[in-house]
Amino acid sequence: MIPIRDHNPSRRVPYVTYALLAANILIFLSYGFEPNGRAAAMVFGSFGAIPIEIAQGFELHTLVTSMFLHGGWMHLAGNMLFLYIFGDNMEDQLGHLPFAGFYAIGGILATLAHIAVDPFSRIPLVGASGAIAAVMGGYLLLFPKARIDIFVFFVIIIRIIPVPAWMVLAIWFGLQLFNGVSAGSASAVAYWAHAGGFIAGFVMTLPWWIARGGPRFWQHTQMHPPHPEAQYARSHIPRTGRRNTGPWGPKR
Fold first, then answer.
1. Mean per-residue pLDDT for 80-97?
2. Where are the membrane-spanning stretches (predicted)?
3. What is the pTM for the complete model shown?
4. Extents of the domains making up the chain
5. Which of 29, 141, 155, 240 has its CA 20 to 30 A from that of 249?
């Protein structure tokens, strides 16, 4: 179940979101092609957030630099997809510079949540997941019923299904909590950074939500985006009839 787009168009060009996408991709390309991974190891050791060092008050700059590092192509692609889907709308609501601050603070708080759970770890924490989780937490508060198209595949069943944002985000958040409790500190995924970032983003968005009327804002919009939703054309796969070309030919 993979979200691929939302039906929530932004009213202005999301310059900060585009800049973050470009920065993450370009930084990854600067070290991600080396076959033996020595460059990545050096980058992670220097700029990744190592919990035991930060807990002792050292290398605090890595709280920011670690947000622009990724451990592989899938790690990068997944994070950039979620940032692309949810980032533009949060930037549209908060404004360009406030969104940049929101993203940075959300990422820092997410990393601190991970460190609070495992403060003696020497494994570098890398990735934009915590900051993007904060964006998702804010999105849940402002647009709980925005439609999200999810790509569902199960064996031979492949569908694109629109579902409300609250369902996608609630399931995602629940999985972070479940996996965080189940895996503990042995996991290679920073589930508690994801959960912490999500909560931080939700809480940081409360002033904007309250300024728009709080519950009255939800009543006015019925929890949908406060503007017309985007409509996407449905693609159709042409069907052909069966044709028998004889005992040695194909049947369609």
1. 96
2. 12-33, 67-87, 99-117, 123-143, 150-177, 189-210
3. 0.86
4. 2-221
5. 155
